[in-house]
Amino acid sequence: MKEIYNNFIKPGVNSSLDTWLVYLSNQHNKIIDLGLDRLNIVASKLDILNPAPIVITVAGTNGKGTTCHLLELILINAGLKVGVYNSPHLLHYTERVRIQGKTLPKELFCRVFFDIESKKGTTKLTYFEYATLAALQLFKETKLDVVILEVGLGGRLDATNIVNSNIAVITSIALDHTEFLGSNREKIGYEKAGIFRPGCYAVIGEMDIPNSIYSVAQDIGSKLFFCGIDCQFKLYNDYWNWKSHDYFFKKLPIPKIPICNAVTALAVISCLLKEDSIIRRNITLQAIKLGLINAKLPGRFQIIHKNPYIILDVAHNPHASAYLADKISCLPKHRDTKVYAVVAMLSNKDIKNTLSYLIPHVDIWYLASLNEILGASSDKLAQYVNSSYKFSTVEDAWLKVIKRINKQDILLVFGSFHTVAKVIEIEKFKSNLI
Q1: What is the CATH number of domain 302-432?
Q2: Can you state the percent helix, strand and coil of the chain, rounding each to 5?
């Protein structure tokens, strides 16, 4: 007999992934319900709390995805078997789990979701908690050498923190998700430092470090490694060097990802080299260089067209938009170049300050309502910018702006993963480009 939860029929092992995702998203009355007690109950039943001999947990306001990706590439190039869990996905749910750099068939997720449902009993789980359990189950089945877990929100109470990692990473600390993590960097730093473990390295990619980071590390006995203090880098015209007390990586190719994330990833590699024999046997300078050459992720200052420049970026908070503004300011411009922006955001983001960094660089704004849960209206965005046009959807804004821009112009699409995904998904959108 089929079970009914919240008026949704429980899917079967052969149900489609779309059916499962709709079901899972309706099994808890909250989108986010921070805490590990419920999750630990189910994870223990599934026996998935030790998914690999080496686990790296990566937290931070921005830069998590690119740091995870570079680590993944370096370790794969070194001959290791690697799994990565990240979120959110851009286009397809299956992007959330990669093994050896590849996504997995939908059917595997359906089977694992069915197994979780069969064993969880009456425990209520959120969508992200289901996703985390599924990833850990898939990793354990594959018998990996290394698992890299991108933290979803904060750290201390995030679902990924049920696993004890060998190395914890904090890429950056800025204001985001303040309703859950706190209203200042000290509180946010404390939440992110919740992924630290006794006797293990904690790599901090941020130079401006809240005191709460030191306090948590001292209380539990973590070994802190600070980028900019315990390691330095020097950038030349066509290469860069990375150096710590123990290692010197010379003449590295300049990556397409932010250099701060590359510095952080190499700090993690250096800590692994000191701690783990399998890493020492496998990591080479060539593996590092290949990782740097090939590291790129969609939606991270992704240039999809030149003449005019069309750039997609998932920046959705002030820290990310400040970086984006710097990148835009470095693009070549002519006397008659105009910068256009298509933007749509979630209403729970710091819209005012996110847009403020780009206001000096954007001439004309195409503001779109985001038709998602918590999506902000174009009217709300319009409160903070001038010279704007308002649209009911991202698709409408995109189709209008590409008819207006000229070859010397710059078009930026940003504000949310949803925003970038909608532009990518427009059928045959490349055929509409100038």
Answers
A1: 3.90.190.20
A2: 40, 20, 40
